[in-house]
């Protein structure tokens, strides 16, 4: 027995249900999705990596100093790769299943460039099955209240679980607790501090705390609620959305991506009404041309919440606050 399991008596700790092991048992568990990606690149000894320009800087930053050449590609307005890429032997291509609504585009990348070269980033598509690719990566903390954590699925025997678990998750629980006891505004600085701390983490396995929390969530309820809310927003907003994606057929996306083709409330106006929207990703503006598709997403995109915390009444309020004209 370990020190964690052989003690008898003493104070009672945090009790959480163990709701599922149906897919976690098949995953390699890391302390973040970017750590999972860095571990993969290192273990297969990739010489170069294709990345989309529309991507968080942390995914490229974690590869810095690992002797990997980074190349970048552009997207079309349907989130397809804009140009034909040359993916040589020893190279891989990362494609993001953006907002959880681009699974067909991800499959097209696999079909075009080969399963052995494609890594699908499902960080924004937790409820999509792993692809038949070199690897599929997930970031469950984007969907549930977790201090860190990433998952990697792959049949490649070269890719192994990190030997050492992260032991620092407890230090990043503050904003999750404060969100319950205070308000999102009061906890926001703690959240930013936690995000920065995750960026600075070494590549390690998932902590025991995060794994326990992850096993306790109600996946089925979250899937149903997210799907219902996204479909409601699609019915109400599709005619005003420049993004021509079949969101109504999508299961449990991260958010509802909305690029208005009419006058609508700006991000700052929504925040003033306590509708807090993420920004994906301001740093992208440093590597794309003005008026490009990626530029417009960063500048004008509204990534609307549709997650399991909310009801259809909440979605109705959200649509009314958009003040579409």
Cα distance spanning the termini: 65 Å
Content-based structural category: alpha/beta
Give the amount of beta strand, in percent: 5-15%
Radius of gyration: 20 Å
The number of strands is 9
Largest sheet: 7 strands, mixed
In DSSP terms, counting alpha (H) and pi (I) runs of 4 or more, how many helices? 10
Strand order of the largest sheet: 1-7-6-5-4-2-3
Verbal overview:
The protein has 10 helices and 9 strands. It has helices spanning 33-43, 57-61, 103-113, 174-181, 184-199, 208-216, 219-237, 267-272, 293-300, 312-321, and strands spanning 28-30, 48-52, 69-73, 91-96, 118-121, 135-138, 150-153, 256-258, 302-304. It is globular and about 60 Å long. The model has no long low-confidence stretch (mean pLDDT 93). The strands form 2 sheets. Strands 1-7-6-5-4-2-3 form a 7-stranded mixed sheet, with helices on both faces. The protein has a two-stranded antiparallel sheet with strand order 8-9. It is α/β, with parallel strands linked by helices and 325 residues long. Helix content is 32%, strand content 11%.
Which short descriptors sum up this protein?
single chain; 325 residues; alpha/beta; 7-stranded mixed β-sheet; 10 helices; 9 strands; globular
List the helices and strands and how they pair.
Elements: E1 28-30, H1 33-43, E2 48-52, H2 57-61, E3 69-73, E4 91-96, H3 103-113, E5 118-121, E6 135-138, E7 150-153, H4 174-181, H5 184-199, H6 208-216, H7 219-237, E8 256-258, H8 267-272, H9 293-300, E9 302-304, H10 312-321
Parallel strand pairs: 2-3, 2-4, 4-5, 5-6
Antiparallel strand pairs: 1-7, 6-7, 8-9
């Amino acid at each position: 027995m370990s020190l964690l399991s052989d003690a008898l008596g003493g104070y009672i700790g945090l009790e959480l249900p163990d709701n599922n092991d149906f897919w976690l048992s098949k995953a390699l568990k890391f302390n973040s999705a970017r750590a999972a990606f860095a571990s993969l690149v290192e273990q297969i000894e990739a010489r170069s990596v294709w990345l989309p320009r529309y991507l968080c800087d942390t995914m490229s930053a974690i590869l810095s100093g690992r002797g990997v050449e980074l190349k970048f590609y552009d997207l079309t307005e349907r989130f397809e790769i804009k140009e034909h890429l040359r993916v040589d032997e020893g190279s891989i291509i990362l494609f993001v299943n953006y907002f959880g609504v681009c699974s067909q585009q991800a499959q097209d990348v696999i079909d075009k460039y080969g399963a052995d070269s494609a890594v699908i980033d499902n960080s924004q598509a937790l409820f999509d099955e792993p692809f038949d690719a070199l690897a599929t990566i997930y970031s469950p903390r984007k969907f549930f209240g977790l201090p860190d954590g990433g998952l990697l699925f792959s049949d490649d025997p070269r890719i192994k679980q990190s030997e050492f678990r992260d032991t620092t998750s407890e230090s990043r629980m503050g904003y999750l607790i404060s969100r319950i006891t205070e308000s999102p505004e009061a906890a926001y600085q703690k959240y930013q501090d936690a995000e920065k701390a995750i960026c600075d983490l070494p590549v390690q396995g998932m902590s025991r705390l995060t794994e326990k929390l992850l096993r306790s969530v109600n996946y089925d309820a979250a899937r149903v609620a997210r799907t219902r809310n996204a479909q409601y927003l699609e019915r109400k907003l599709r005619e005003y959305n420049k993004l021509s994606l079949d969101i109504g057929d999508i299961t449990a996306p991260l958010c509802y991506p909305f690029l208005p083709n009419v006058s609508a409330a700006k991000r700052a106006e929504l925040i003033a009404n306590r509708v807090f929207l993420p920004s994906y990703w301001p740093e992208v503006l440093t590597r794309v041309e003005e008026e490009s598709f990626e530029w417009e997403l960063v500048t004008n995109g509204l990534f609307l919440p549709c997650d399991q915390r909310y009801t259809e009444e909440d979605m109705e309020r959200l649509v009314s606050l958009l003040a579409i004209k």
